[in-house]
Each structure stands twice: as C-alpha cells, then as structure tokens.
C-alpha cells in the first residue's frame, strides 16, 4: 500500500479499500454504485414516497394485529435508530424497542435511549450480556488479530432481534439503516460477514472460551427466518426523506436528543475501535465510508468531508487518553499489552473456520434468480 493512496475525485473513499476501482475520471466504484441507488430513490416524488410509506405501515399493522407489538425497532442510541423509532410512532405503529448492552454503553447513549422510550411511550427490551464472558470473547478476538472485533456485538444484536421476532410472531424488524447516510457498500477488508457464527465460535474456541450465554445467529438460521418465517429486516428510513442533520436537529429540539461527534460513537468501545484501533493497527478510517455516503447524497460537500478527515477521529485529543485508560482498566490490560497488540500484524478471518462462503453463495444464487430483490 502506498503512503498516499489514490482518492476518489467525487467522494473521499481511497485505495485503502481493497476492492476499489477507479474509472478514467478518477471516480470510484463505491460512489458510482451508490449513485445508482440514490437515483432510483430521487425519482420518487413526495406524494409517491408518502403513498409507499402508508402502504408499508398498513402492511405492518395488519401483520401485527392481535399481538402486543407489530414490529421491532433496534435502538442503539444513535440518531438513525432514534429517528426510525420516532417515525414508527408518528405513523401509529406499536414497536418494541430493542437494545443490547454489552457493557460498553456511553452514559450519553443510556440517557438518549431512556429519554426516547419515555417520551415516545414505547416498551424497551434490553438484553444485557454477561460481562465476564463477553470480555473473554473480546480477548479471544484481540489475540486472533482479526479486524472485526465488532462481529461479537453485531452478530449477537442480530440474534436478539430475530429471537424476539420469533417469540412475538413478528414479521418486521425496522432499522435506522438507509441509503442516504449509509448506502455505500462496506469494502471487503473493512469488516467481516455479520452472520458468520462459525467464525465467531472458532475464534472463541481458539482463545479457550466457550460461548454459553451470548446469543448468536448463523447463515442457515438467518435464511430460515427470512425465507420460511418471513421475517424482514427493513431499512425503514428509506421510506422517508431522511436528511441526517435536519433530523438530528429535530430530535434535539423535540425529544431532547444529544448527538455524538461521529457515527456509531454511542458505544465507548466502538468509538475506541473505530477511532484508534482500526486506523492504528489496520490502517482503516471508517469515517471515509460514512462521510462519502453523505457526500454522495448531497448532505455534505467533499471539501467539508476532507476537512473532517484531516482532524483526529477524536475531536478532543484528551478524550482518546480517557478512552485508552478506560479500555485498559475494563479489559485488564497494561499499556504495554495495548502497544503489543497494535504492533502485531493482522490475520484474516478466513484463517479460521467460516461460513461466509455459504452466505456469499446463497446471496449470489438469490441475485441471479431474483434480480432486483434485496439480498
């Protein structure tokens, strides 16, 4: 990798992404692909968007008739999931808000979640993981030197949501994911398949840890829940005209929501992982992907995005040392342990047993036989 990797002339993605391809004008495949998605969305006028939203809401209500809830909204405490929950309530849905506490929640995230569910009058289910088990699992991932330590949280979060959907007989999991703010595909080398339960268990086993209480979900279970049980994971904010800054301003004014400096910083570990571990050990700044999505959707200028990338992922340098100290104490590490971890080379996830190949094979089959359908 060069010290100054080529950067897209339209967004701020660069050649750190292993599967990036530039055209003759220097524009990358990531923003070209996202532009296609955005164009399809922008061809929908306000009346048609409202009609589609109403039709979807009616469908969710009908499926939930006679049940205590008609849908689930995963609630991280971030702006996207907060606005998804607000939108669901505004349109008369009866969501169960679901949160997973892995021991790394920031105080601000806890306050935002409590405030949201109280003001929106929704039930909150919080799954609290066993911290000793979770810390041992994280240690296994650190010892393995694989990139996606967040696979533990993300897979468990998916499992919790699907388990609750089955428990209550619900068909719809509404998420805050959306094309406008995160429609850019994640580069292959930035993370790992979130349904790869086999990989998670193999890395845990290598570290001498047995998964006893952490919920997990694999590829075949996901396919069964989707194809047989008909459970849909829906990017709900694609049904509305979602401008992130405008919506954050609204949430702050109407619901007392307090924002975070960057996406996914509602978790102390995610903040430390994305702001320090990823760029230091793996040479990856995920802000490029998040900011590029905003550039492509016209919610931020490329110049502003480049300016933000020149700043530290920690807007206040003092926060980094606070998070380092917190991380060391919570994990039981010394400063030398952290330095040694950051200095070791990366190992690939597929050096360990994996079912990601199965997900890719099934997704490819789905694309070929059901073109245009979501995978």
Describe this structure in words.
This protein has 375 residues and is an alpha/beta fold. The protein has one domain (45-282, 314-369): Rossmann fold, CATH 3.40.50. It is 53% helix and 7% strand. It contains 16 helices and five strands. It has helices spanning 29-42, 46-64, 79-90, 107-120, 131-144, 151-168, 179-182, 197-206, 219-227, 244-255, 268-282, 287-296, 302-310, 317-331, 335-343, 356-369, and strands spanning 71-74, 95-101, 123-128, 172-175, 232-235. Strands 3-2-1-4-5 form a five-stranded parallel beta sheet, with helices on both faces. Helix 11 crosses helix 14 (317-331). It is globular.
Any key phrases for this structure?
single chain, 375 residues, alpha/beta, Rossmann fold, five-stranded parallel beta sheet, 16 helices, 5 strands
């Amino acid at each position: 990798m060069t010290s100054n990797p080529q950067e897209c002339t339209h967004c701020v993605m660069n050649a750190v992404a292993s599967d990036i391809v530039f055209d003759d004008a220097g524009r990358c495949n990531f923003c070209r692909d996202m532009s296609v998605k955005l164009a399809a969305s922008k061809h929908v006028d306000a009346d048609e968007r409202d009609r589609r939203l109403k039709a979807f809401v009616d469908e969710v209500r009908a499926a939930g008739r006679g049940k205590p809830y008609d849908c689930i909204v995963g609630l991280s405490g971030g702006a996207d999931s907060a606005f998804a929950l607000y939108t669901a309530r505004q349109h008369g849905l009866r969501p169960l808000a679901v949160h997973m506490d892995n021991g790394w929640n920031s105080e601000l995230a806890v306050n935002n979640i409590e405030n949201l569910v109280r003001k929106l009058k929704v039930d909150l289910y919080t799954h609290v993981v066993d911290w000793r088990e979770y810390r041992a699992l994280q240690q296994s991932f650190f010892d393995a030197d694989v990139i996606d330590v967040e696979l533990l949280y993300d897979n468990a979060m998916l499992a919790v949501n699907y388990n609750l959907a089955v428990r209550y007989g619900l068909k719809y999991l509404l998420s805050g994911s959306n094309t406008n703010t995160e429609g850019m595909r994640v580069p292959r080398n930035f993370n790992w398949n979130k349904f790869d339960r086999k990989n998670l268990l193999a890395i845990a086993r290598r570290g001498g840890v047995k998964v006893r209480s952490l919920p997990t979900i694999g590829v075949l279970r996901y396919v069964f829940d989707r194809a047989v049980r008909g459970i849909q994971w829906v990017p709900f904010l694609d049904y509305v005209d979602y401008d992130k800054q405008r919506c954050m301003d609204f949430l702050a004014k109407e619901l007392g929501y307090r924002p975070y400096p960057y996406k996914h910083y509602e978790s102390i570990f995610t903040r430390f992982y994305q702001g320090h571990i990823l760029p230091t050990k793996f040479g990856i700044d995920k802000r490029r992907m998040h900011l590029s999505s905003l550039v492509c959707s016209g919610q931020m200028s490329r110049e502003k995005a480049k300016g933000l990338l020149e700043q530290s992922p920690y807007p206040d340098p003092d926060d980094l040392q606070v998070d380092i100290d917190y991380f060391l104490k919570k994990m039981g590490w010394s400063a030398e342990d952290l330095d040694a971890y950051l200095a070791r080379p990366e190992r690939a996830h597929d050096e360990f047993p994996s079912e990601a190949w199965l997900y890719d094979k099934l997704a490819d089959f789905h694309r070929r036989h059901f073109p245009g359908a979501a995978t």
